[in-house]
Amino acid sequence: MWEQLDRWLNDTGGLCGTSTVSTDEHYWKIGYPISQALVRGSDRQILTRFFAATRLRPGNPAHVSGRELLRRLRVWTAGRDRRLSPRLMDELANAGDSGDTLIVSLLKRLADEWDGRLHEPEHEHRRRALGLRLVVADRGKRLEWLAESVEELPETEVSLLPDGRTFKLRQDYGSTYSGLESLHPSAQQLSNGVRLGGKDLVIEWAPQEVVLLRKHPHLGDWVSTEYFEPGDQHWLLVADSAVSEVRAMVGTLGGRTIRETPSPVPGWKLFKGVRAVNGAAFTRTLDQGGKHTHVLEPQIRQQTKLSGGLRIAPEYRAGAGVVGHYLRHAAPDLLLPPSDAPDRKVDVVLDGHTQSLRTDPRVPFPLWVVPLEEGKHTVGTTRSSQTFTVHDGLHEGLPPQTGTLGYPCNGTARSEPIEVEDVQAAIRGAYAPESIRLPRTEIMRCTVLEAMLLTPDGDVRKVGQSPPPAWMTSRLPDGALGPCLEVQVPPGYVWLIYRTPSRWSVRPLLDAADIPGPDPSRGDFAWAYAVISAAHRSRLPVWQDYVAAAEAIAGKRNYR
Fold first, then answer.
1. What is the mean pLDDT of the chain?
2. Cα diameter, the chain
3. Which conformational region is residue 447 in: left (phi greater than 0), alpha (psi within -120 to 50 degrees), or beta?
């Protein structure tokens, strides 16, 4: 059949297409169909690693589009031999950026059907897969690895390949794993990649010369991400081999000055404050192309989304369908899906009025140029829309309906807040008058083995883990008790020192400029030992003064 198809295509002189049917003398029976396969079995195994590396969730609940998957796959394979078949690599190179091509629809179907496991027949397809994230913490002075947790694996064990170091992972705050604190990112790991494997889980970092970072909404640190968000602040961690090209690329974005600083890892630099605020300059930068332009490519969406703007309050009513409340004349930007029309126009619907706009899906449309009255507005396309409100400012008093929100409690409280009536028994928010001064608190993980509060004059106070009060354990569900606890900080204490199973850490309790210099007495040995335990965990100049004072005290007793 394959030979007849090949002869027929050749006999028609290319009228019905050019034959690509081929085989060889060793695999002539299976060579014919393999020559026509767009995605082979080996490709499927590698694509599951790609899904994991780009942190796609099982079943694709975020509805990442096929075009976005194609963009990510091109970035993932750029300059690297991922061992995909030549046919698939040719399709990646030649696939158009518009229209629902075969490769686009196929990637979308594979992503929607992916169950979060690697395609590994030798492991019975049972191992989960995750992409490792890079964290730049302590204002760019420290690097860490971050692994998002798998709900079905609250605890697991992985080993660093190929040296075999073992790490015990435990589900922690923010749906992440703890246990990788002792694995410090190095220049070799950034350049060559990291692979952690266990019986149930594989975690991988794909090597790259330029790492794009955006501030994590829960952790507060700068974390590696898959796509650029126009209007938001970003950092770039750049290898020295790519610094000159990246410097020229970000210089064309316009806007605020981008700061270039050394990174914690030799051979790399940090670019801080990378932001696209000028749509025309951003478009020119992307259209000019270049080796590293892909890090500035925004996500290709199938639905509209709002970004930026001056938000004065989030939406607090569950199920209200409102994404947020914004200051008037500072409305958010509208990110649109790409258009398949020849003129690249998109029908935008604002409060029921439709207008065709020729827009670039990579550049958001600024809604602040549209005069909007106070109140609720709905904007989007005929397929998807977003609802938001604009106000001239916050008014005194509580927002409407705030007092009706609570956790219904009939013996045990519900875990989700809803609107409750005055006659219902519910746990509601409390009003604290200004005359009541609430204690200063710090959040600390429950896995901390010991913790101490320090004053400048040599006082040390140990912090113990207090059990939840009886009223909480009896009325709230187990899911409401998180992995963190609050530490009350009495007046005068300026440092929190604590120890986890892997290391000591130190945290300033005031701004560095407000922390007074050390003034301990010569006999404050407990204070000195506490400071020396975390001597190298902070680079703040005022902390180094404390370390010097502690070493002077410890020397009186021949401390080593």
1. 83
2. 99
3. alpha
Place of tokens 């829309």: 385
Residues 247-274, mean pLDDT to the nearest whole number? 90
Beta carbons of 377 and 351 less than 8 angstroms apart: yes
Task: Show Cβ contacts of residue 114 under 8 Å, excluding neighbours closer than 6 positions.
Answer: 48, 51, 56, 58, 59, 60
Using alpha carbons, list the distances in angstroms from residue 252 to 190, 214, 241, 257: 27, 20, 20, 11
Q: Is there a contact between 144 and 176 (Cβ–Cβ < 8 Å)?
A: no
Interacting residues of 119 by C-beta distance below 8 A, sequence separation 6+: 41, 44, 45, 47, 48, 125
CA atoms within 13 A on the CB side of 120: 17
Burial of 302 (0-12, 13-18, 19+ CB in 10 A): middle
329, pLDDT greater than 70: yes
Helix (H) or strand (E) holding 15: none
**Contact by Cβ (8 Å): 332, 414:** no
Place of tokens 């300026």: 494
Burial class (CB in 10 A: 0-12, 13-18, 19+), 164: exposed
The answer for 102, left when phi > 0, alpha when psi is -120 to 50, beta otherwise, is alpha
Q: Which of 85-94, 234-243, 543-552 comes out lowest in average pLDDT?
A: 85-94
CA distances from 69 to 37, 50, 390, 501 (A): 20, 10, 34, 39
Give the pLDDT score at 529. 92
DSSP letters, 400-420, are TTGGGEEEEEESEE-SS-EE-
pLDDT in tens, 349-376: 999 999 888 777 778 888 988 999 998 9
Q: What is the residue whose two structure tokens read 């091509």?
A: 101
Strands 412-413 and 155-160: unpaired
Q: Could you give the angle at which helices 541-555 and 525-533 cross, rounded to 10 degrees?
A: 130
Q: What DSSP string runs through 145-178?
A: EE-BPBTTBSEEEEEETTT--EEEEEEETTTEEE
In which residue are the tokens 């709900």 written?
151
Give the separation between CA 241 and CA 269, rounded to whole angstroms: 10
Tell me: pLDDT of 312 over 90: no
Give the tokens for residue 71. Answer: 């963009």
Neighbours of 303 (CB within 10 A): 15
* Nearest residue to 325 via CA among 402, 273, 255: 402
Residues making up the chain, counted from first to last = 560
Which secondary structure element, helix H or strand E, spans residue 73, and what is its range? Answer: helix 66-77
| 3-class secondary structure, 311 | strand
pLDDT tens per residue across span 411-435: 788 877 787 776 678 877 765 566 6
